[in-house]
Amino acid sequence: MSSHAKERGKEGDQEMERERNSKREREREREREGERERERERERERGRERERERERERERERERERESKKVRESKSEGERERERERESERERERKRERVRERGGERERERGRREREREREREREREGKR
Prior knowledge:
Structural class: mainly alpha
Strand content: under 5%
Number of helices: 2
Radius of gyration: 49 Å
Helix content: over 70%
Distance between the termini: 160 Å
Number of strands: 0
Largest sheet: none
């Protein structure tokens, strides 16, 4: 085999090697692109899931609000009457408390006047001596 033929054979081998490398590189790039696309899809799915969760939470909140409203509306007349009675009892208790406080003030005032009269009598007795 002439050295010329060997040279051509070597060049051919190198060319085939470059093509195989190039093909492998394109294949890896397609795989990486596919992985990136799958990751973007997973991210979109997570976003949709978060949105569904927020919607479920809003629905639960609306349901609690409806329940609460139903309870308020469904209180029987008797329950409302008892509620008014408890409120007026609390109001009477507050009034009694204010009266007790004023009573204590009157008591202190009476004691102060009493001590003042006592001092006045003491001064009169001192004056008579």
